[in-house]
Amino acid sequence: xxxxxxxxxxxxxxxxxxxxxxxxxxxxxxxxxxxxxxxxxxxxxxxxxxxxxxxxxxxxxxxxxxxxxxxxxxxxxxxxxxxxxxxxxxxxxxxxxxxxxxxxxxxxxxxxxxxxxxxxxxxxxxxxxxxxxxxxxxxxxxxxxxxxxxxxxxxxxxxxxxxxxxxxxxxxxxxxxxxxxxxxxxxxxxxxxxxxxxxxxxxxxxxxxxxxxxxxxxxxxxxxxxxxxxxxxxxxxxxxxxxxxxxxxxxxxxxxxxxxxxxxxxxxxxxxxxxxxxxxxxxxxxxxxxxxxxxxxxxxxxxxxxxxxxxxxxxxxxxxxxxxxxxxxxxxxxxxxxxxxxxxxxxxxxxxxxxxxxxxxxxxxxxxxxxxxxxxxxxxxxxxxxxxxxxxxxxxxxxxxxxxxxxxxxxxxxxxxxxxxxxxxxxxxxxxxxxxxxxxxxxxxxxxxxxxxxxxxxxxxxxxxxxxxxxxxxxxxxxxxxxxxxxxxxxxxxxxxxxxxxxxxxxxxxx
Length: 511
Hints:
Distance between the termini: 58 Å
Helix content: 25-40%
Shape: globular
Protein backbone atom coordinates (compact mmCIF):
# COMPACT_ATOMS: atom_id res chain seq x y z
CA UNK A 1 0.00 0.00 0.00
CA UNK A 2 1.21 3.49 -0.83
CA UNK A 3 2.63 5.38 2.14
CA UNK A 4 0.65 8.64 2.25
CA UNK A 5 1.52 11.02 5.08
CA UNK A 6 -1.23 11.58 7.63
CA UNK A 7 -0.71 15.32 7.28
CA UNK A 8 -1.44 15.10 3.55
CA UNK A 9 -4.65 13.19 4.17
CA UNK A 10 -5.62 15.82 6.71
CA UNK A 11 -5.11 18.47 4.02
CA UNK A 12 -7.29 16.50 1.61
CA UNK A 13 -10.02 16.18 4.22
CA UNK A 14 -9.85 19.90 4.97
CA UNK A 15 -10.39 20.74 1.30
CA UNK A 16 -13.70 18.87 1.21
CA UNK A 17 -14.81 20.04 4.64
CA UNK A 18 -14.32 23.65 3.56
CA UNK A 19 -16.71 23.18 0.64
CA UNK A 20 -19.56 22.21 2.95
CA UNK A 21 -18.68 25.07 5.30
CA UNK A 22 -18.81 27.50 2.35
CA UNK A 23 -22.22 26.22 1.29
CA UNK A 24 -21.15 24.71 -2.01
CA UNK A 25 -23.07 21.49 -1.27
CA UNK A 26 -25.07 19.98 1.61
CA UNK A 27 -22.61 17.08 1.80
CA UNK A 28 -19.23 16.04 0.46
CA UNK A 29 -17.50 12.67 0.62
CA UNK A 30 -14.09 11.54 -0.66
CA UNK A 31 -11.79 8.55 -0.85
CA UNK A 32 -8.10 8.05 -1.62
CA UNK A 33 -7.05 4.74 -3.15
CA UNK A 34 -4.02 3.00 -4.60
CA UNK A 35 -3.45 -0.29 -6.40
CA UNK A 36 -4.16 -2.22 -3.19
CA UNK A 37 -7.42 -0.57 -2.19
CA UNK A 38 -8.97 2.34 -0.32
CA UNK A 39 -6.37 4.11 1.82
CA UNK A 40 -8.55 6.69 3.52
CA UNK A 41 -11.95 8.36 3.21
CA UNK A 42 -13.95 11.11 4.84
CA UNK A 43 -17.28 12.86 4.69
CA UNK A 44 -18.78 16.16 5.76
CA UNK A 45 -22.21 17.74 5.97
CA UNK A 46 -25.57 16.01 6.22
CA UNK A 47 -26.44 13.07 4.02
CA UNK A 48 -30.11 13.61 4.86
CA UNK A 49 -30.50 11.95 8.24
CA UNK A 50 -28.38 14.25 10.35
CA UNK A 51 -25.16 12.28 9.92
CA UNK A 52 -22.16 12.81 7.65
CA UNK A 53 -21.75 10.61 4.58
CA UNK A 54 -19.18 7.82 4.56
CA UNK A 55 -17.58 5.54 1.97
CA UNK A 56 -20.75 3.42 1.77
CA UNK A 57 -23.20 6.30 1.26
CA UNK A 58 -24.90 6.18 -2.15
CA UNK A 59 -24.73 9.09 -4.61
CA UNK A 60 -25.46 9.40 -8.30
CA UNK A 61 -22.19 9.20 -10.21
CA UNK A 62 -23.68 10.60 -13.43
CA UNK A 63 -21.21 10.62 -16.34
CA UNK A 64 -18.67 8.47 -14.51
CA UNK A 65 -21.09 5.82 -15.81
CA UNK A 66 -19.66 6.32 -19.31
CA UNK A 67 -16.50 4.36 -18.46
CA UNK A 68 -18.67 1.38 -17.54
CA UNK A 69 -20.73 1.74 -20.72
CA UNK A 70 -17.53 1.77 -22.76
CA UNK A 71 -16.08 -1.22 -20.91
CA UNK A 72 -19.27 -3.24 -21.40
CA UNK A 73 -19.16 -2.62 -25.14
CA UNK A 74 -15.51 -3.69 -25.25
CA UNK A 75 -16.41 -7.09 -23.78
CA UNK A 76 -18.74 -7.66 -26.72
CA UNK A 77 -16.02 -6.58 -29.14
CA UNK A 78 -13.55 -8.98 -27.49
CA UNK A 79 -16.06 -11.81 -27.91
CA UNK A 80 -16.25 -11.06 -31.63
CA UNK A 81 -19.90 -10.08 -31.47
CA UNK A 82 -19.52 -6.56 -32.79
CA UNK A 83 -16.97 -4.27 -34.44
CA UNK A 84 -16.16 -0.75 -33.27
CA UNK A 85 -16.20 0.29 -36.92
CA UNK A 86 -19.81 -0.77 -37.40
CA UNK A 87 -22.22 2.04 -38.25
CA UNK A 88 -24.75 3.11 -35.66
CA UNK A 89 -27.54 2.36 -38.15
CA UNK A 90 -26.72 -1.36 -37.78
CA UNK A 91 -28.18 -1.19 -34.28
CA UNK A 92 -30.46 1.86 -34.37
CA UNK A 93 -32.27 1.82 -37.73
CA UNK A 94 -34.08 5.06 -36.86
CA UNK A 95 -30.75 6.87 -37.25
CA UNK A 96 -31.13 6.30 -40.98
CA UNK A 97 -33.63 9.17 -41.00
CA UNK A 98 -30.93 11.62 -39.85
CA UNK A 99 -29.60 13.95 -42.55
CA UNK A 100 -25.83 14.07 -42.26
CA UNK A 101 -24.05 17.46 -42.37
CA UNK A 102 -22.41 16.99 -45.79
CA UNK A 103 -22.96 14.76 -48.78
CA UNK A 104 -19.73 12.88 -48.06
CA UNK A 105 -20.19 12.51 -44.32
CA UNK A 106 -19.85 8.97 -43.00
CA UNK A 107 -22.55 7.51 -40.81
CA UNK A 108 -21.17 7.67 -37.25
CA UNK A 109 -19.56 4.44 -36.10
CA UNK A 110 -19.39 2.96 -32.61
CA UNK A 111 -15.77 4.09 -32.45
CA UNK A 112 -16.79 7.68 -33.20
CA UNK A 113 -19.47 7.53 -30.52
CA UNK A 114 -17.01 6.11 -27.98
CA UNK A 115 -14.47 8.85 -28.63
CA UNK A 116 -17.01 11.70 -28.72
CA UNK A 117 -16.37 12.45 -32.38
CA UNK A 118 -19.72 11.73 -34.05
CA UNK A 119 -20.21 15.43 -34.82
CA UNK A 120 -23.14 16.05 -32.45
CA UNK A 121 -23.36 19.27 -30.43
CA UNK A 122 -22.43 18.99 -26.78
CA UNK A 123 -25.66 18.46 -24.90
CA UNK A 124 -25.31 18.24 -21.11
CA UNK A 125 -28.30 20.38 -20.07
CA UNK A 126 -30.62 18.59 -22.49
CA UNK A 127 -29.08 15.12 -22.18
CA UNK A 128 -29.10 15.09 -18.38
CA UNK A 129 -32.91 15.31 -18.45
CA UNK A 130 -33.44 12.49 -20.96
CA UNK A 131 -32.53 9.47 -18.85
CA UNK A 132 -36.02 8.03 -18.43
CA UNK A 133 -37.21 8.28 -22.04
CA UNK A 134 -38.00 5.01 -23.80
CA UNK A 135 -36.27 3.47 -26.79
CA UNK A 136 -39.26 4.44 -28.93
CA UNK A 137 -38.99 8.05 -27.77
CA UNK A 138 -35.28 8.09 -28.62
CA UNK A 139 -36.16 6.76 -32.07
CA UNK A 140 -38.65 9.62 -32.43
CA UNK A 141 -35.88 12.09 -31.58
CA UNK A 142 -33.73 10.63 -34.34
CA UNK A 143 -36.55 10.62 -36.89
CA UNK A 144 -37.06 14.30 -36.14
CA UNK A 145 -33.51 14.98 -37.31
CA UNK A 146 -30.32 16.20 -35.67
CA UNK A 147 -27.99 19.17 -35.85
CA UNK A 148 -24.26 18.69 -36.35
CA UNK A 149 -21.38 20.89 -35.28
CA UNK A 150 -18.86 18.97 -37.40
CA UNK A 151 -18.48 16.18 -39.91
CA UNK A 152 -18.58 12.81 -38.10
CA UNK A 153 -15.12 11.48 -37.31
CA UNK A 154 -13.29 14.82 -37.38
CA UNK A 155 -13.68 16.68 -34.07
CA UNK A 156 -14.18 16.08 -30.35
CA UNK A 157 -17.42 17.30 -28.75
CA UNK A 158 -18.81 15.83 -25.54
CA UNK A 159 -22.07 14.06 -26.41
CA UNK A 160 -24.54 12.30 -24.17
CA UNK A 161 -26.64 11.38 -27.18
CA UNK A 162 -23.66 9.44 -28.51
CA UNK A 163 -23.41 7.31 -25.38
CA UNK A 164 -27.18 6.70 -25.35
CA UNK A 165 -26.75 5.26 -28.85
CA UNK A 166 -23.85 3.10 -27.62
CA UNK A 167 -26.09 1.73 -24.89
CA UNK A 168 -28.68 0.80 -27.50
CA UNK A 169 -25.98 -0.99 -29.49
CA UNK A 170 -24.97 -3.00 -26.42
CA UNK A 171 -28.61 -3.90 -25.86
CA UNK A 172 -29.17 -5.00 -29.45
CA UNK A 173 -25.98 -7.07 -29.68
CA UNK A 174 -26.54 -8.76 -26.32
CA UNK A 175 -30.26 -9.23 -26.88
CA UNK A 176 -31.07 -8.03 -23.35
CA UNK A 177 -31.72 -4.72 -21.58
CA UNK A 178 -28.63 -2.57 -21.28
CA UNK A 179 -28.85 -2.38 -17.49
CA UNK A 180 -28.96 -6.18 -17.21
CA UNK A 181 -25.94 -6.57 -19.49
CA UNK A 182 -23.90 -4.13 -17.38
CA UNK A 183 -24.92 -5.81 -14.14
CA UNK A 184 -24.13 -9.33 -15.34
CA UNK A 185 -21.01 -8.50 -17.35
CA UNK A 186 -19.20 -5.99 -15.12
CA UNK A 187 -20.84 -5.04 -11.84
CA UNK A 188 -21.53 -8.55 -10.58
CA UNK A 189 -18.21 -10.18 -11.53
CA UNK A 190 -16.23 -7.28 -10.01
CA UNK A 191 -18.24 -7.28 -6.79
CA UNK A 192 -19.60 -3.78 -7.33
CA UNK A 193 -22.76 -4.64 -5.44
CA UNK A 194 -23.48 -1.07 -4.36
CA UNK A 195 -23.40 0.24 -7.93
CA UNK A 196 -26.92 0.17 -9.34
CA UNK A 197 -29.17 1.86 -11.90
CA UNK A 198 -32.16 2.42 -9.59
CA UNK A 199 -32.24 3.99 -6.14
CA UNK A 200 -34.62 1.25 -4.99
CA UNK A 201 -31.88 -1.33 -5.62
CA UNK A 202 -29.28 0.43 -3.47
CA UNK A 203 -28.27 -1.28 -0.24
CA UNK A 204 -26.97 1.84 1.51
CA UNK A 205 -28.41 5.24 2.31
CA UNK A 206 -29.20 7.17 -0.88
CA UNK A 207 -28.47 10.90 -0.69
CA UNK A 208 -31.04 13.33 -2.08
CA UNK A 209 -29.78 15.71 -4.76
CA UNK A 210 -30.36 19.44 -4.29
CA UNK A 211 -29.99 22.85 -5.86
CA UNK A 212 -29.39 26.08 -4.05
CA UNK A 213 -31.94 28.89 -4.06
CA UNK A 214 -32.03 31.98 -1.84
CA UNK A 215 -29.94 30.43 0.89
CA UNK A 216 -31.76 27.09 1.04
CA UNK A 217 -31.34 23.69 -0.56
CA UNK A 218 -34.22 22.54 -2.75
CA UNK A 219 -34.49 18.74 -3.04
CA UNK A 220 -34.66 17.38 -6.57
CA UNK A 221 -36.41 14.20 -7.75
CA UNK A 222 -34.43 11.23 -9.02
CA UNK A 223 -34.93 10.05 -12.60
CA UNK A 224 -35.61 6.40 -13.36
CA UNK A 225 -33.64 4.15 -15.75
CA UNK A 226 -34.36 4.48 -19.46
CA UNK A 227 -32.81 4.93 -22.88
CA UNK A 228 -30.28 7.50 -21.61
CA UNK A 229 -29.08 5.49 -18.59
CA UNK A 230 -25.83 4.65 -20.45
CA UNK A 231 -24.81 8.33 -20.22
CA UNK A 232 -24.95 8.62 -16.43
CA UNK A 233 -27.60 6.51 -14.77
CA UNK A 234 -25.54 4.73 -12.11
CA UNK A 235 -25.61 5.22 -8.35
CA UNK A 236 -22.50 4.20 -6.44
CA UNK A 237 -20.37 4.67 -3.33
CA UNK A 238 -16.83 5.85 -2.67
CA UNK A 239 -15.90 2.25 -1.88
CA UNK A 240 -17.32 0.87 -5.12
CA UNK A 241 -16.18 3.61 -7.49
CA UNK A 242 -12.65 3.53 -6.10
CA UNK A 243 -12.76 -0.25 -6.62
CA UNK A 244 -13.71 0.30 -10.27
CA UNK A 245 -11.06 2.98 -10.75
CA UNK A 246 -8.27 0.89 -9.33
CA UNK A 247 -9.40 -2.06 -11.46
CA UNK A 248 -8.91 0.13 -14.53
CA UNK A 249 -5.60 1.39 -13.15
CA UNK A 250 -4.40 -2.16 -12.44
CA UNK A 251 -4.05 -2.68 -16.19
CA UNK A 252 -0.80 -0.72 -15.83
CA UNK A 253 0.52 -2.92 -12.99
CA UNK A 254 3.03 -4.58 -15.29
CA UNK A 255 4.33 -1.13 -16.23
CA UNK A 256 4.56 0.07 -12.62
CA UNK A 257 6.16 -3.14 -11.42
CA UNK A 258 7.81 -5.45 -13.92
CA UNK A 259 6.96 -8.42 -11.71
CA UNK A 260 3.35 -7.31 -11.24
CA UNK A 261 0.36 -8.55 -13.16
CA UNK A 262 -2.89 -6.79 -13.93
CA UNK A 263 -5.95 -7.71 -11.93
CA UNK A 264 -8.11 -10.16 -13.92
CA UNK A 265 -11.61 -9.18 -14.90
CA UNK A 266 -14.24 -9.22 -17.63
CA UNK A 267 -12.35 -6.54 -19.59
CA UNK A 268 -8.85 -7.57 -20.59
CA UNK A 269 -5.87 -5.55 -19.34
CA UNK A 270 -5.11 -4.60 -22.94
CA UNK A 271 -8.61 -3.22 -23.46
CA UNK A 272 -8.48 -1.40 -20.12
CA UNK A 273 -5.24 0.24 -21.20
CA UNK A 274 -6.88 1.10 -24.53
CA UNK A 275 -9.65 2.91 -22.67
CA UNK A 276 -7.00 5.04 -20.98
CA UNK A 277 -5.25 6.23 -24.15
CA UNK A 278 -6.10 9.63 -25.65
CA UNK A 279 -7.91 8.92 -28.91
CA UNK A 280 -9.14 12.48 -29.51
CA UNK A 281 -7.24 15.65 -28.73
CA UNK A 282 -9.28 18.26 -26.85
CA UNK A 283 -8.22 21.75 -27.88
CA UNK A 284 -7.48 24.54 -25.42
CA UNK A 285 -10.64 26.57 -26.15
CA UNK A 286 -12.68 23.49 -25.21
CA UNK A 287 -11.22 23.37 -21.69
CA UNK A 288 -9.77 26.84 -21.09
CA UNK A 289 -8.84 26.16 -17.44
CA UNK A 290 -6.88 22.98 -18.24
CA UNK A 291 -3.34 23.02 -16.93
CA UNK A 292 -2.32 19.94 -18.89
CA UNK A 293 -2.80 18.66 -22.43
CA UNK A 294 -5.96 16.56 -22.42
CA UNK A 295 -7.67 14.09 -24.70
CA UNK A 296 -10.54 11.62 -24.65
CA UNK A 297 -10.06 7.87 -24.67
CA UNK A 298 -12.91 5.38 -24.45
CA UNK A 299 -15.25 6.68 -21.77
CA UNK A 300 -12.39 8.43 -19.97
CA UNK A 301 -10.39 11.65 -20.14
CA UNK A 302 -6.59 11.42 -20.29
CA UNK A 303 -4.35 14.27 -19.16
CA UNK A 304 -0.59 14.38 -19.63
CA UNK A 305 1.36 15.82 -16.70
CA UNK A 306 4.99 16.79 -17.27
CA UNK A 307 6.02 15.38 -13.88
CA UNK A 308 3.87 12.33 -13.15
CA UNK A 309 2.79 11.33 -16.64
CA UNK A 310 -0.76 10.29 -17.61
CA UNK A 311 -3.67 11.09 -15.31
CA UNK A 312 -7.00 9.46 -16.14
CA UNK A 313 -10.29 10.96 -15.01
CA UNK A 314 -13.98 11.50 -15.55
CA UNK A 315 -16.50 13.80 -13.95
CA UNK A 316 -20.21 13.41 -13.50
CA UNK A 317 -22.90 16.05 -13.20
CA UNK A 318 -26.62 15.41 -12.92
CA UNK A 319 -29.33 17.66 -11.50
CA UNK A 320 -28.52 17.62 -7.79
CA UNK A 321 -25.22 15.72 -8.01
CA UNK A 322 -21.53 16.11 -8.81
CA UNK A 323 -18.93 13.34 -9.00
CA UNK A 324 -15.30 12.92 -10.01
CA UNK A 325 -12.71 10.15 -10.20
CA UNK A 326 -9.06 10.44 -11.17
CA UNK A 327 -5.84 8.46 -10.86
CA UNK A 328 -2.25 8.32 -12.00
CA UNK A 329 -1.52 5.38 -14.28
CA UNK A 330 2.15 5.51 -13.22
CA UNK A 331 1.54 5.24 -9.47
CA UNK A 332 -2.01 3.92 -9.18
CA UNK A 333 -2.79 6.65 -6.65
CA UNK A 334 -6.19 8.23 -7.08
CA UNK A 335 -9.17 10.07 -5.60
CA UNK A 336 -12.93 9.78 -5.95
CA UNK A 337 -15.40 12.32 -4.56
CA UNK A 338 -19.13 13.06 -4.58
CA UNK A 339 -21.33 16.01 -3.64
CA UNK A 340 -25.10 16.44 -3.80
CA UNK A 341 -25.61 19.85 -5.37
CA UNK A 342 -26.27 20.92 -8.96
CA UNK A 343 -23.14 22.31 -10.64
CA UNK A 344 -21.05 21.82 -7.49
CA UNK A 345 -18.07 20.93 -9.72
CA UNK A 346 -16.43 18.62 -7.20
CA UNK A 347 -13.88 17.94 -9.95
CA UNK A 348 -12.13 21.19 -9.03
CA UNK A 349 -11.31 20.22 -5.45
CA UNK A 350 -10.66 16.59 -6.40
CA UNK A 351 -7.97 17.66 -8.84
CA UNK A 352 -6.39 19.84 -6.16
CA UNK A 353 -6.48 16.93 -3.69
CA UNK A 354 -4.93 14.57 -6.22
CA UNK A 355 -2.14 17.05 -6.95
CA UNK A 356 -1.36 17.15 -3.23
CA UNK A 357 -1.18 13.36 -3.09
CA UNK A 358 1.13 13.27 -6.10
CA UNK A 359 3.42 15.88 -4.55
CA UNK A 360 2.52 18.51 -7.09
CA UNK A 361 1.13 20.71 -4.29
CA UNK A 362 -0.82 23.31 -6.24
CA UNK A 363 -3.81 23.88 -3.94
CA UNK A 364 -4.54 27.36 -5.25
CA UNK A 365 -4.47 26.47 -8.93
CA UNK A 366 -7.77 26.43 -10.82
CA UNK A 367 -9.34 23.02 -11.32
CA UNK A 368 -10.62 21.45 -14.47
CA UNK A 369 -14.22 20.25 -14.75
CA UNK A 370 -13.68 17.69 -17.46
CA UNK A 371 -17.20 16.20 -17.64
CA UNK A 372 -18.60 19.12 -19.58
CA UNK A 373 -16.14 20.17 -22.33
CA UNK A 374 -17.19 21.61 -25.64
CA UNK A 375 -14.85 22.26 -28.50
CA UNK A 376 -14.59 24.24 -31.69
CA UNK A 377 -15.70 22.42 -34.81
CA UNK A 378 -15.62 22.92 -38.55
CA UNK A 379 -18.54 24.95 -39.85
CA UNK A 380 -21.31 23.00 -41.57
CA UNK A 381 -23.71 25.44 -43.09
CA UNK A 382 -23.46 28.54 -45.19
CA UNK A 383 -25.79 31.50 -45.28
CA UNK A 384 -24.85 33.27 -42.08
CA UNK A 385 -22.12 35.72 -41.27
CA UNK A 386 -18.95 34.26 -39.75
CA UNK A 387 -18.30 35.00 -36.09
CA UNK A 388 -14.70 35.29 -34.92
CA UNK A 389 -14.06 34.84 -31.21
CA UNK A 390 -10.84 36.45 -30.03
CA UNK A 391 -7.86 34.23 -30.73
CA UNK A 392 -9.77 31.54 -32.62
CA UNK A 393 -10.59 30.61 -36.18
CA UNK A 394 -13.78 31.78 -37.83
CA UNK A 395 -16.90 29.80 -36.85
CA UNK A 396 -20.00 29.99 -39.02
CA UNK A 397 -23.08 29.53 -36.90
CA UNK A 398 -26.00 27.53 -38.22
CA UNK A 399 -29.14 29.18 -39.60
CA UNK A 400 -30.97 27.50 -36.71
CA UNK A 401 -28.67 29.32 -34.29
CA UNK A 402 -29.42 32.68 -35.93
CA UNK A 403 -33.13 31.93 -35.80
CA UNK A 404 -32.85 31.10 -32.11
CA UNK A 405 -30.94 34.34 -31.52
CA UNK A 406 -33.80 36.32 -33.05
CA UNK A 407 -36.35 34.39 -31.00
CA UNK A 408 -34.40 35.00 -27.77
CA UNK A 409 -34.26 38.72 -28.58
CA UNK A 410 -38.06 38.74 -28.91
CA UNK A 411 -38.32 36.74 -25.69
CA UNK A 412 -36.29 39.27 -23.71
CA UNK A 413 -38.52 42.08 -25.01
CA UNK A 414 -41.61 40.11 -23.98
CA UNK A 415 -40.14 39.49 -20.53
CA UNK A 416 -39.93 43.22 -19.85
CA UNK A 417 -43.76 43.35 -19.90
CA UNK A 418 -46.28 41.66 -17.66
CA UNK A 419 -47.60 38.23 -18.55
CA UNK A 420 -46.86 34.55 -18.32
CA UNK A 421 -43.04 34.14 -18.43
CA UNK A 422 -43.42 30.76 -20.11
CA UNK A 423 -45.76 31.94 -22.87
CA UNK A 424 -43.06 32.71 -25.44
CA UNK A 425 -40.19 30.70 -24.01
CA UNK A 426 -41.86 27.29 -23.98
CA UNK A 427 -41.79 26.98 -27.78
CA UNK A 428 -38.22 28.23 -28.02
CA UNK A 429 -36.44 26.08 -25.41
CA UNK A 430 -36.11 22.40 -24.58
CA UNK A 431 -37.94 21.25 -21.40
CA UNK A 432 -34.72 21.10 -19.39
CA UNK A 433 -34.49 24.92 -19.37
CA UNK A 434 -37.40 25.55 -16.97
CA UNK A 435 -36.56 22.34 -15.10
CA UNK A 436 -33.07 23.68 -14.42
CA UNK A 437 -34.30 27.18 -13.47
CA UNK A 438 -38.06 27.90 -13.42
CA UNK A 439 -39.39 30.49 -15.88
CA UNK A 440 -40.38 33.04 -13.25
CA UNK A 441 -36.88 33.00 -11.78
CA UNK A 442 -35.32 33.30 -15.21
CA UNK A 443 -37.49 36.28 -16.14
CA UNK A 444 -36.81 38.02 -12.82
CA UNK A 445 -33.05 37.51 -13.19
CA UNK A 446 -33.10 38.70 -16.81
CA UNK A 447 -35.11 41.81 -15.91
CA UNK A 448 -32.68 42.62 -13.14
CA UNK A 449 -29.69 42.24 -15.48
CA UNK A 450 -31.33 44.40 -18.15
CA UNK A 451 -32.10 47.13 -15.63
CA UNK A 452 -28.66 46.96 -14.05
CA UNK A 453 -26.89 48.02 -17.25
CA UNK A 454 -29.77 49.90 -18.91
CA UNK A 455 -29.63 47.53 -21.87
CA UNK A 456 -31.12 48.59 -25.19
CA UNK A 457 -32.94 45.43 -26.28
CA UNK A 458 -33.69 46.88 -29.71
CA UNK A 459 -30.07 47.67 -30.58
CA UNK A 460 -27.82 45.60 -32.78
CA UNK A 461 -25.22 43.52 -30.90
CA UNK A 462 -21.97 45.36 -30.24
CA UNK A 463 -20.00 42.10 -30.31
CA UNK A 464 -20.49 38.39 -30.95
CA UNK A 465 -18.51 35.19 -30.46
CA UNK A 466 -19.09 31.51 -31.06
CA UNK A 467 -17.17 28.33 -30.26
CA UNK A 468 -19.20 25.97 -32.47
CA UNK A 469 -22.03 26.37 -35.01
CA UNK A 470 -24.77 25.66 -32.44
CA UNK A 471 -23.43 28.20 -29.92
CA UNK A 472 -23.64 31.99 -29.92
CA UNK A 473 -22.80 34.71 -27.43
CA UNK A 474 -23.64 38.36 -28.08
CA UNK A 475 -23.56 41.66 -26.23
CA UNK A 476 -26.16 44.44 -26.29
CA UNK A 477 -25.22 48.04 -25.43
CA UNK A 478 -26.48 49.70 -22.25
CA UNK A 479 -26.31 53.07 -20.57
CA UNK A 480 -24.07 51.72 -17.81
CA UNK A 481 -22.47 48.65 -19.30
CA UNK A 482 -23.62 45.91 -21.62
CA UNK A 483 -25.82 42.82 -21.53
CA UNK A 484 -24.36 39.40 -22.37
CA UNK A 485 -26.74 36.84 -23.87
CA UNK A 486 -25.63 33.29 -24.63
CA UNK A 487 -27.38 30.29 -26.14
CA UNK A 488 -26.56 26.69 -27.00
CA UNK A 489 -28.85 24.57 -29.11
CA UNK A 490 -29.78 21.00 -28.28
CA UNK A 491 -28.84 18.43 -30.95
CA UNK A 492 -32.39 18.51 -32.31
CA UNK A 493 -33.10 19.61 -35.88
CA UNK A 494 -35.88 21.84 -34.54
CA UNK A 495 -33.19 24.26 -33.32
CA UNK A 496 -34.36 24.51 -29.70
CA UNK A 497 -32.29 26.26 -27.03
CA UNK A 498 -30.93 24.03 -24.25
CA UNK A 499 -28.83 26.72 -22.51
CA UNK A 500 -29.96 30.33 -22.04
CA UNK A 501 -27.81 32.81 -20.12
CA UNK A 502 -28.55 36.51 -19.60
CA UNK A 503 -25.99 38.44 -17.54
CA UNK A 504 -25.16 42.06 -16.80
CA UNK A 505 -21.63 43.33 -17.41
CA UNK A 506 -21.56 46.75 -15.70
CA UNK A 507 -19.13 49.37 -16.95
CA UNK A 508 -16.12 49.97 -14.75
CA UNK A 509 -16.49 53.13 -12.73
CA UNK A 510 -13.75 55.71 -12.81
CA UNK A 511 -12.00 56.24 -9.49
